[in-house]
Amino acid sequence: MTDIRKFAVTPTTQLHLRDANDEPMFADGTDGQPDAARPLVAVLYGPGSKAFKKAQAAASNRTIDRLKKKGKSDLTADEQARENAEFLAACTVELQNVELDGLRDEALALAVYTMPELGFIAEQINKHINDWANFSQQSATK
């Protein structure tokens, strides 16, 4: 017999963010050059976490509320991007070595994820959090 919990996933993972050219991103050092000791990292809740489930429920509730009010579920591109950004921000524990207008925590994540010119970040986070393998015990120990 095997205790099935040995296959359980971890609630969070870290993702080293990559730029639009698929190169790893680093914070600027004191000399203005990328500092390899300071990667830009997103710490994310995964599909096996309560926070992720809560974010999914909130997204579903927004859809239901919209249906009740408008009688349709169609979203404009801007509304769709905003809803996706809200979901991703709720799934973000923190963004490390990332700054934007002095924002912190969920406000920082939401700002980053709603900027069209940084859309590649939201895209890679979406892909990462929807892959259970990124939250496996083996992934956490690599």
Low-confidence stretches: none
Strand content: 15-25%
Average pLDDT reading: 91
The strand count comes to 5
Shape: flat
Alpha-carbon Rg, integer: 17 Å
Instruction: Give the topology string: H per helix, E per strand.
Output: EEEEHHEHHH
Distance between the termini: 27 Å
> How are the strands ordered across the major sheet?
1-4-5
Q: Biggest sheet: strands, sense, closure?
A: 3 strands, antiparallel
- Helicity level: 40-55%
User: Which structural class is indicated by helix and strand composition?
Assistant: alpha+beta
Treating each run of at least 4 consecutive H or I residues as one helix, how many helices?
A: 5
Organism: Pseudoduganella flava
Protein name: Tail assembly chaperone
Can you describe what's shown?
Helix content is 43%, strand content 17%. With 142 residues, the protein is α+β, with helices and mostly antiparallel strands. It has a domain at 39-137. The strands form two sheets. Strands 1-4-5 form a three-stranded antiparallel β-sheet. The protein has a two-stranded antiparallel ribbon with strand order 2-3. The longest helix is centred in the middle third of the chain and has 21 residues, at 50-70.
